[in-house]
Structure formats: structure tokens, C-alpha cells
Design a protein that fits this description.
Blueprint: E1 2-5, E2 8-11, H1 15-26, E3 31-34, H2 39-44, E4 50-52, H3 53-61, H4 66-71, E5 73-75, E6 77-82, E7 85-90, H5 91-95, E8 100-102, H6 105-118, E9 122-124, E10 129-133, E11 141-146, E12 149-154, E13 157-160, H7 168-171, E14 179-194, E15 203-206, E16 212-216, E17 221-229, H8 239-250, E18 262-275, E19 279-280, E20 283-285, E21 291-292, H9 300-321, H10 325-328, H11 330-352, H12 361-375, H13 377-388
Parallel strand pairs: 1-12, 2-3, 2-13, 3-9, 6-15, 13-20
Antiparallel strand pairs: 4-8, 5-8, 6-7, 10-11, 11-12, 14-17, 14-18, 15-16, 16-17, 18-21, 19-20
Helix pairs in contact: 1-6, 1-9, 9-11, 12-13
The structure holds 8-demethyl-8-dimethylamino-flavin-adenine-dinucleotide and P-hydroxybenzoic acid (PHB).
């Protein structure tokens, strides 16, 4: 049996786990990461693209933003389309200069993994954590498997950064938290295509056929999404149908969508989920392990990084001042932003997705919101500040 001793045992090498490990290292706190999947699998997993200002600032502070700043694209505004009519929300003017950056999640994961391993960090791939025990004592352990052999991490604290399907949440004592969730009756079909983006900034569109989003990854790669029926199969969406539908839904006067070879295609269900207690004694959950939001506001990865900030604050307080105070307040500190993101993601989702008959009462409320954003700087400002991400001071 392999036994590893460390200060913080981290489960999951997604954005949350990797960011936590780097940030702890910056404060001289040791950690070991276990990752269920292979390095290739994790780095090929196509997901987020929108990084908030806070997230980029954190990676700059951690010295992990060289490639992000070189290859990521800073955006100063976003387009909203409604029934073919387009408006632009300018971030700089409405948020005092805060922006978003488009940079693929798998690139973030690659940069953080490379830097962690290059710095001699411990990270075991294909090493699933099987159980978390003794977190109600000062000596928790994580049982895991590696190369067919059982292993144990003995640590001071366990950080479950293991995503929505991980073991972290299942390990919390029953009745120690309340769950909140909504399942939306639609999903997103997402594609990556070898074609220059048709818009320099993102376009979110409501159309009577459903929602569409134009995003991008580079000057040669576009990322696009379509609202599809719940339970829809990728096989029903040949490339021509996807381009046709994107073109119709995103269409606006004087603008046309360029198409190209599609090299990634997948369908994601849309749901909101969260728990109101993300910790128990010496076990802490961060990121998707504790909450998920529909991707319409681009918040999931950013929330994961914000959770990590609060957990690092608590752990630093413990190791520097021998105080559990910051750790005890971890959930309380993280929850305010999580609820804000739940609300904003729900707002964006219900504003842009087709939920009822075109022309119905629900549709008219959506249109009334869009018309109000168009003419009210105050309304546009609340959207812009949520979209680029509120500063940490906003939640104190
Ligand atoms: P992850 O990324 O799921 O990582 C968890 C890791 O834990 C591993 N794991 C285990 N390891 C060891 N032992 C076990 N027992 C384990 N169980 C699980 C898993 O293999 C995995 O590697 O969670 P994390 O780190 O919390 O990060 C969260 C983000 O991945 C997620 O919120 C975002 O991708 C959401 N999201 C977006 N977020 C944004 O901020 N901006 C966006 O633009 C954005 N777009 C999106 C998105 C998510 C999408 N999908 C596919 C859900 C677009 C889409 C389509
Ligand atoms: C993406 O580029 O993948 C992306 C951008 C904005 C969103 C969701 C996803 O709201």
C-alpha cells in the first residue's frame, strides 16, 4: 500500500483542484492531487471559454497567465440579439474598465498542469479517490487506487474539487446541507469549427427557433451553441443542419455567419444545482462538486476559482495563525457569490431560451426585458457587472 503524507489532499485536477494546489504552494502549503482520469482525457475535455476579470487577475497573480495573456482574447463588450435585432453591451464604460477574456478551459487546465508538474508538484493521474474518512478528526485520510494498487493520503484537510459526479458531496454527512436544483427542459448542442469567427465579440441570440450563441477560441476556431430539445441526440444534427440553424438564429441585417469543418460536437443538459453547506469539519468542497449553473452566463469555472480563493484564505489563516475561523466561514463567504451566479445564470438562460410559444406571455416578458436593456443604462450596467464578474469586495 502506497502511503502519502501531505497538508492538503486534493481530489480532482480540474480548474478548481489545480488552482487550489498552485495557490497553496504560493503560501508554502503542501498538497497532493489525485485525478481519476488520464492527463490526455482531462486536457481534451472541451468546456468553458469565458474567464471573468477576477479569474484572469488571479492567474496573473499566481504567475500562470503567460499563455493566457498571449493567446486569450480580451473582450470589451458583448452582443445580444432578439428576433434579429442586435444591441451591444459595452463593458468598459459600464463597469469601470472590467472585461472578460476568452481562453479555453482545456488550455487553462493544460497550463496549470504543466506548471504544477514542472515545479515538482505531486499529481497522480488515473488515480480515483475511493473514500474520504476521518475528516471529523485532525487526521483525515483519502483512500485511492493507483496502478492497480491501493493507496492512502494522510493529510490535515481534504479538498474535494471533484466535479458534479465526484465523491466529495456524497461524503458530506446526510442532513448537513439542503439541496436546490432546477432542470431546464432543453440542452445545448456545442460545436468547435475550423473557421474564423464571424464576430469579434460573443453574440447571444433569442430566436423563435430557440437560443444560439456565437463564441470563439482563436482567429481560426469558432465555438458555437444551439438550444436543442431535452434528450436530443447528436446523430440528429448533421453539420449542414447545424450551420443552417445557427445562421437563421444568429442572423441579423448586414451580418452573415461563416461556416467551416466541425471537429467537435456534443450535447450538454442544462441545470442549476447547489447545496447550502459546502464543508464538514476538515472536508471542503469547491467548484462543480458543490454547485452547477447552466453555461449561459459563463459562470461555472469562474465560481470554482472564486471558491478556491475563500478556501485558500481559510487555510492560510489556519497554517499562519493556527485559527479555524476563516475555514469555519468558508461556506458563508463563498455562498453570496454562488447565489448571485445562480440568479444571473438563470436570468440569462430565461432571457434567451425559447420556453413557450413565440408571442406568448412568457415570450413578451423576454422581449420586454430586451427592450429595457436597450434603453436603460442602469439595466445594462447590472448585466455588464454580473457578466464580467463582481469584484471580491462587492460581497463583504
Ligand atoms: P471539473 O472540471 O469537473 O473537474 C473535476 C475533476 O475531478 C475529477 N474527479 C476525480 N478525481 C479523483 N477521484 C475521484 N473520485 C474523482 N471524481 C472526479 C474529474 O475527472 C475532473 O477532472 O470541476 P471544477 O474543477 O469544479 O471546474 C468546474 C468547470 O469545469 C465548470 O464549471 C465549467 O466547465 C462550466 N462552464 C463554463 N464555466 C465558465 O466559467 N465559463 C464558461 O464559458 C463555461 N462554459 C461550461 C461552459 C460548461 C459546459 N459544459 C460542458 C458543462 C460550457 C459548457 C458547454
Ligand atoms: C464558450 O466560449 O464556451 C462560452 C462562452 C460564453 C458562455 C458559455 C460558453 O456563456
Amino acid at each position: 500500500m502506497k502511503t502519502i503524507k501531505t497538508q492538503v489532499g486534493i481530489i480532482g485536477a480540474g480548474p478548481a483542484g489545480l488552482t487550489l494546489a498552485h495557490w497553496l504552494k504560493k503560501h508554502g502549503i503542501e498538497s497532493v492531487i489525485l485525478e481519476h482520469r488520464s492527463r490526455e482525457y482531462v486536457q481534451a475535455r472541451v468546456r468553458a471559454g469565458l474567464l471573468e476579470q477576477n479569474t484572469v487577475d488571479i492567474y496573473k497573480y499566481l504567475g500562470l497567465a503567460d499563455r493566457l495573456l498571449r493567446e486569450g482574447q480580451e473582450h470589451h463588450g458583448v452582443y445580444f440579439n432578439f428576433d434579429g435585432q442586435r444591441i451591444r453591451i459595452p463593458f468598459g464604460e459600464l463597469t469601470g474598465g472590467r472585461n472578460i477574456t476568452i481562453y479555453g478551459q482545456q488550455e487553462v487546465v493544460k497550463d496549470l498542469t504543466d506548471a504544477w508538474l514542472a515545479g515538482g508538484g505531486a499529481l497522480y493521474f488515473e488515480a480515483p479517490a475511493l473514500s474520504i474518512e476521518g475528516f471529523d478528526t485532525a487526521h483525515p485520510i483519502i483512500q485511492f487506487e493507483y496502478e492497480g494498487e491501493p493507496g492512502v493520503i494522510e493529510c490535515d484537510f481534504v479538498a474535494a474539487c471533484d466535479g458534479f459526479h465526484g465523491i466529495g458531496r456524497k461524503s458530506l454527512p446526510k442532513n448537513s446541507f439542503q439541496e436546490y436544483s432546477i432542470t431546464y427542459p432543453f440542452g445545448w448542442l456545442g460545436i468547435l469549427a475550423q473557421v474564423a469567427p464571424s464576430s469579434e465579440e460573443l453574440v447571444y441570440a433569442y430566436h423563435e427557433n430557440g437560443f444560439a450563441l456565437h463564441s470563439l477560441r482563436s482567429s481560426k476556431v469558432s465555438r458555437l451553441y444551439l438550444q436543442v430539445e431535452d434528450g436530443e441526440q447528436v446523430e440528429n444534427w448533421p453539420d449542414e443542419r447545424i450551420w443552417e440553424e445557427l445562421s437563421v438564429r444568429l442572423g441579423t441585417e448586414g451580418w452573415s455567419l461563416q461556416s467551416g469543418p466541425i471537429f467537435e460536437k456534443s450535447i450538454t443538459p442544462m441545470r442549476s444545482y447547489m447545496i447550502d453547506n459546502m464543508q464538514s469539519e476538515r472536508l471542503f468542497l469547491t467548484g462543480d462538486a458543490a454547485h452547477i449553473v447552466p453555461p449561459t452566463g459563463g459562470k461555472g469555472l469562474n465560481l470554482a476559482v472564486a471558491d478556491v480563493k475563500h478556501l485558500v484564505d481559510g487555510l492560510v489563516d489556519f497554517y499562519q495563525n493556527n485559527s479555524m475561523r476563516g475555514l469555519e466561514d468558508y461556506t458563508k463567504n463563498a455562498l453570496k457569490r454562488i447565489w448571485r451566479a445562480q440568479d444571473f445564470s438563470n436570468f440569462m438562460t430565461t432571457l434567451f431560451h425559447k420556453q413557450a410559444e413565440h408571442g406568448s406571455y412568457t415570450y413578451r416578458l423576454q422581449k420586454a426585458k430586451f427592450d429595457y436593456i436597450r434603453c436603460s443604462k442602469a439595466y445594462a450596467t447590472t448585466i455588464a457587472e454580473n457578466y464580467v464578474g463582481l469584484p471580491f469586495e462587492a460581497f463583504i
